Amino acid sequence: MAEEIEKLVAKIKSGVNLPNVRIGLFDIQGHVLYSSLGEKASELASKLTKGAFAAWDIGDYQVKHLDKGCLLVSRVTEKLALAIDSFEREGIVIVTMGALMKRFAEDFEKIDKLLPGKPIAVPLSEEIPVEVKEKPVESIPPPAEVKPEPVQQIVEKPAKPATTPLINITPDLVFGISQANINKIEMDQVMLSLIRAFDGVKPVSEVTKLAGVDYNTALPRIIKLVENGVLTVVTKPEEDDLTYHLVYELVPPYTVDNVAEKACAGRSEEVVTVMVNLDRGYTIRELSAGLEKIGLKKTPKEVYEILEYYRTLNVTRVKQIGSGDISELLKNPAYQAVYTYTPGMSYEEAVKKLIIGDRKTLIVLRNINLKRPVAEIYNGIRSLRIETAPDEVLKIFEELEKRGIIKKI
Length: 409
Hints:
- This protein is of the alpha+beta class.
- The chain has 17 helices and 11 strands.
- The chain has 4 domains: 113 residues, Beta-Lactamase (2-Layer Sandwich), CATH 3.30.450.190; 60 residues, no CATH class; 79 residues, no CATH class; 82 residues, no CATH class.
């Protein structure tokens, strides 16, 4: 058995990224099977195991702070406890324990089978109170950095009076055909080629290529088709909704080190994992994707519901839209402004009034009801991989306000 334990310890050490980590293995009676822990930590881990092992489920753990170190003892099998001691903060140690349990589950079971006896309920020591916590949770890896896709630039035409519909076609827009209006205008061969290519799925940039028409040649014809109601924009409510690009943070005194204990007792591993990763600046979509990477599943909608539930308890709050740094931008009063729809106005009514807006305008309209600053809406548009500039987004807000569609709060 000693040889098996040595092999396991060597594996664990190679799989731990914590600096100066110390490890201990204990049986159900708190007997030391292996320990590189300090004397005080080893003695405490032994007492914790002996006093609490029978009360723990596999994965339950106890944390104790010794000097500047953090000692965590967890039941990893029916007859085996693992202790790790590190100078890292509690949340990191908990995450590390969870990773070790998952990675070396089979190795722990091999040692377990070599150990005699079954768990025995032992009266808890008065000296060491036992707290049963949630199972260790894993850290969500940072999302891959994605650079915004370049957007084809279109030469702007002279601005039309505010009383005329806003028509601004961009290459990423998607259009569908309105059969009811298709016979209302005369079409040349180029228009007919475009009509055949529009399918409600492909963006303008692909349609022009498929039709074999130069973009600049196609643009005025597409505008005419839009003006006459032959083409109608296909909006992307799910893709353009910035709700799932919200970033939440914990409300003091809650921190990633204490939120699992103070606010998540009895909650699932997915919930705890979301909460202990709120210091990383991840959006809801990034949190959902991160959960999937570590074998846990929560849709963006479910993650949003978790965070909103804790917001009602004053445990979480919305920090911003998008994960980029906009602190400098928010120093400008123009980008601090928050807008809402004017009375009687809605997204659907706004789109009708404009006839068509470019996708950035549609995203702004889609997310007005979030009531977040202009800077955050800009940040959200960037998070959708759409190349833009702060002043470009600000101009959209100003134009919509000028047309009586939105107003400042």
